[in-house]
Write a structure and sequence with these properties.
Keywords: Membrane, Transmembrane, Transmembrane helix
Protein name: Inner membrane component domain-containing protein
Number of helices: 5
Shape: globular
Pfam family, one: YccF
Helix content: 55-70%
Strand content: 5-15%
Order of helices and strands: HHEHHHEE
Largest sheet: 3 strands, antiparallel
Radius of gyration: 15 Å
Number of domains: 1
């Protein structure tokens, strides 16, 4: 079922969202200082292309560095990627099948705004009772 949902997601907006993250990653890698932002964008692009079966959890040991990088991320790419998620959700909600995808796109906004200090893991790797910040 996850594979079917991922395929539907891919065709109803995942490709465009993934392309947005890819462009953000390439632009962020132009400057040496923002290379970590670019690498985070590439990780998020993979998640946005194939989200079902993944979960977002807190990264152990994330501290002030993550908060600083989240600020840099927000200024460089986060706000317009979140806007891209809102536009994709609006477009996806036109069809009945797309409503589920629209909800998933809206659930990804907090992660797209502040990705540092978080990890994307397979849902099967969560410890029993561990609650993800976001999962699809």
């Amino acid at each position: 079922m996850r594979t079917l949902l991922n395929i539907i997601w891919l065709f109803l907006g995942g490709i465009w969202l993934g392309l947005g993250y890819l462009v953000a990653g390439v632009l962020a890698c132009i400057l040496v200082v923002t290379i970590p932002v670019g690498l985070a964008s590439f990780r998020m692009a993979r998640y946005v292309l194939w989200p079902f079966g993944s979960a977002v959890v807190r990264r152990p040991g994330a501290g002030a560095g993550s908060a600083l990088m989240n600020l840099v991320w927000f200024v460089i790419a986060g706000w317009w990627l979140a806007l891209l998620h809102v536009i994709a959700a609006a477009a996806q909600s036109i069809t009945v099948v797309g409503i589920v995808n629209a909800v998933v796109s809206l659930k990804m906004i907090p992660v797209s705004l502040f990705p540092f200090g978080r990890m994307i893991v397979p849902r099967g790797s969560l410890a029993p009772g561990e609650r993800p910040l976001h999962s699809v």
